[in-house]
Design a protein that fits this description.
23 helices, 755 residues, five-stranded antiparallel β-sheet, seven-stranded mixed β-sheet, Beta-lactamase, Penicillin-binding protein 2a (Domain 2), 4 domains, alpha+beta
Length: 755
């Protein structure tokens, strides 16, 4: 085989042709790639500039602009006399972005000038502000927190005037309660959620939507570092709408008296289980006062409550302790008047009698035996009178109410019958909520399918329960011509400028009994005060009517709740008042509740502008006076209990031990024993022989005044008085100590009447 010789020239031509082909292919490929790249860029540009213009514009703007929420100012809670009970304050946190701390309109305003002015406005050392402003590598430097609104407004005016950047302001709303001791369970408190304020309990919770207002927003340019709105920025804004104010029926003077008297009686009787009370306008259902002992500070609701044992407050941290949180919610923050049912006891007898009168179930002259009575199905526990083994013999229904006789009530209820009786229980509102404008209202426990035994026991208020507001509301109907009203705390609502936006009208629920029956039961209950078990509830000049109660519970009936529910004046009713003492020891009568009722009711009626109208009985009792009891040598506890039963106002020396087991004895009293006085007497008791000196007070001029005017003036001056001779309807013509002289408070001034 012969090989073809290698031809260099031919090979060279072939190689050059292939190279040129590769070059053209490469050029084409590169061109295609460039075209595709350009096409992608064009497509992206079209997409960005045209198709996604809105989205990309918003994304770009988001780097410089921001939608910032504006939270509305919460409305105020205001008492009937204009006292502000809950307000919103603003506090501010100030910070700097040092590199941006300059004026946008004036080169004459230097950074040093700005530092000096900010330090002056915020009342900070200039060196401290200068040190913060020098940290230009930092995007944010904290300066001061909780700056008050007035200071912030001054700072804002300065920043706006010179369009100064680099200053960030964070705004925080803060709820503040100027009267923290006044009805905190009613007013409630708030929490902050997402920088907004929300009500937790009380009126703050119930009227949260009214108080809260409507949030707004501002869309504008922000600082790139702190994200705070720039002062010179223009943007879109929707103003937040402030909440409305709520104005209450609650009267601070009546409320304060109620709370003070409840605290005082619990201290005197060493009552650790507490007390509660309500004052209501019976014609409108308006709540004038609602209080209880064992309160908390709504400005700091999580703080350690007063009155707890050392064991209960050990390692106090309710945020991380479920038991302590439960204690706050179930006891400390609980409004007992609307959320804690109780056995009303003998106060319920007034309702039983009113039903009997309305249904004409018995004759008013019919006599009933007060001897123990056996109820079929419950023979093991005969129903007895409270004075058993004695009893009141035979008596009318009215007398049975005066003397609070259980056997009489059982016989009356049996005449009424189960179905009819429990229809009235429903009509009085005891199977449902009253509808009061407070959250967490509960209802008591009433038998769904009552038996004759249930009827008998409930006729005198035991083995079923109601809440205090349920009972008081039904009592108010007894004095309101038989008409049941819906209890209400809010009178009207206003906007931020004080314009009335809603007037809350009184609301009638239903008529329960006739006006004739209403008049009759009021007369019966007046007899409870004048002839029966409630002499200590008397309010001279206002003639109250009411009913006492001592109810017991526990396995051995060892726990007692005492109360008094009354209406005054009985012949022209204005207010109903309920006072409850929970488990006082060792009290077995309602006298302490009557004592508080009398003082609270008198204060309420005087505050309402109702002048006393003394009848013959008032004049006779006041002019007769009473004698100061001997307390020296007795235990302080016994002396106080006796003083309450004699309707004396008590002051005790500092450091005294009030407990029943205390060995403290009274070594000094003023006025001394066996001195006569009238009106609400004062007595000072001291267990320390070194604490005998009392404050000196000036004797006022009593001459020329009426008996009622003298009683008022003596109470204001903290003096005792005693009436002598003459006609009590005349005027004082002589006083034993001349006006203007200084004497120890509680001194007895003798006043002689005549023309």
């Amino acid at each position: 085989m012969m090989r073809r010789p290698w031809n260099n020239e031919s090979a060279s031509r072939s190689t050059g042709s292939v190279g040129r082909d590769h070059s053209r292919v490469g050029t084409i490929v590169i061109g295609i790639l460039i075209f595709l790249f350009a096409l992608i860029i064009v497509v992206r540009l079209v997409n960005v500039q045209l198709i996604q213009h809105g989205e990309t514009a918003r994304a770009a703007a988001a780097l410089h602009y921001q939608d910032m929420a504006q939270y509305p100012e919460r409305g105020e809670i205001i008492a009937a006399n204009g006292t502000k009970l809950a307000v919103t304050t603003y506090v501010y946190t100030i910070g700097l972005t040092p590199r941006d701390l300059e004026s946008a309109i004036s080169k004459d305003v230097t950074k040093d000038d700005i530092v000096t002015q900010i330090a002056d406005i915020l009342s900070m050392p200039r060196e401290e502000v200068a040190e913060a402003a020098a940290q230009e590598d930092e995007t944010y430097v904290f300066l001061k927190k909780e700056v008050p609104r007035e200071t912030y407004e001054e700072l804002r005016a300065y920043l706006r005037k010179y369009q100064i950047g680099g200053v960030s302001v964070d705004t925080d709303m803060k709820r503040y309660y100027p009267q923290p001791d006044l009805a905190p369970e009613v007013i409630g408190f708030t929490n902050r959620r997402n920088r907004n304020i929300e009500g937790v309990i009380g009126l703050e919770n119930y009227y949260n939507e009214v108080l809260a207002g409507t949030p707004g927003f501002r869309y504008g340019e922000v600082d790139n570092y702190s994200k705070s709105m720039l002062y010179f920025s223009e943007g879109m804004m929707q103003q937040a709408q402030p909440g409305n104010n709520i104005i209450l029926h609650l009267n601070p003077e009546i409320q304060q008296t109620l709370e003070n008297e409840l605290e005082s009686i619990c201290r005197i009787h060493n009552n650790t289980k507490g007390a509660a009370g309500i004052v209501m306008n019976i014609k409108t259902g308006a709540i004038l006062a609602m209080g209880q002992t064992g309160s908390f500070d709504p400005n700091n609701p999580m703080d350690v409550p007063q009155g707890l044992s050392d064991e209960e407050v050990e390692d106090w941290d309710p945020a991380n302790n479920e038991d302590q949180t439960d204690l706050l919610t179930s006891k400390i923050w609980l409004n007992r008047n609307v959320s804690q049912p109780y056995e009303p006891g003998s106060t319920y007898k007034a309702l039983t009698v009113s039903v009997a009168l309305e249904e004409k179930a018995v004759s008013e002259t019919e006599l009933f035996s007060d001897a123990p009575i056996e109820v079929e199905g419950w023979e093991e526990y005969p129903v007895r009178c409270s004075i058993y083994p004695a009893n009141h013999g035979e008596e009318t229904m009215e007398q049975g109410l005066w003397h609070s006789c259980n056997p009489v009530m059982v016989q009356i209820a049996q005449r009424i019958g189960v179905e009819t009786y429990y229809n009235y229980v429903q009509a009085f509102g005891h199977r449902g909520l009253t509808g009061i404008d407070l959250p967490a209202e509960t209802v008591g426990l009433i038998h769904e399918d009552p038996s004759t035994v249930d009827l008998a026991i409930w006729s005198f208020g035991e083995q079923s329960t109601v809440t205090p507001i349920q009972l008081l509301n039904s009592f108010a109907a007894l004095g309101n011509g038989g008409i049941l009203m819906r209890p209400q705390l809010v009178d009207y609502m206003t906007d931020r400028d004080g314009n009335v936006v809603q007037d809350v009208q009184p609301e009638v629920i239903r008529r329960v009994i006739s006006e004739k029956t209403s008049d009759k039961i009021m007369s019966y209950m007046r007899g409870v005060v004048t002839e029966g078990t409630a002499h200590l509830a008397e309010v001279h000049g206002y003639q109250p009517a009411g009913k006492t109660s001592t109810s017991s519970h526990g396995d051995e009936d060892e726990f007692v709740v005492v109360s008094f529910c009354g209406i005054a004046p009985f012949n022209n009713p204005e207010i109903a008042t309920l006072i409850i003492l929970y488990e006082p020891i060792p009290i077995t009568t309602s006298q302490p509740a009557q004592y508080v009722y009398s003082r609270v009711t008198e204060k309420a009626l005087r505050t309402m502008g109702l002048k006393p109208n003394y009848d013959d009985r008032d004049y006779q009792e006041l002019f007769a006076g009473r004698i100061m009891q001997p307390y020296e040598g007795t235990s302080l506890y016994d002396a106080q209990v006796n003083a309450v039963s004699n309707d004396f106002w008590i002051e005790v020396n500092e450091g005294a031990d009030f407990s029943p087991w205390s060995k403290d004895e009274v070594v000094y009293q003023y006025p001394e024993a066996r001195k006569y006085m009238t009106g609400r007497g004062f007595v000072y008791l001291s267990t320390d022989p070194n604490q005998k000196d009392l404050e000196q007070v000036e004797v006022p001029k009593f001459t020329g005044l009426t008996m009622g005017e003298c009683l008022d003036l003596a109470e204001q001056a903290r003096l005792n008085i005693n009436f002598e001779g003459g006609d009590p309807r005349s005027f004082v013509k002589k006083q034993s100590v001349e006006a203007g002289q200084m004497v120890s408070k509680y001194t007895i001034i003798e006043l002689t009447f005549g023309y």
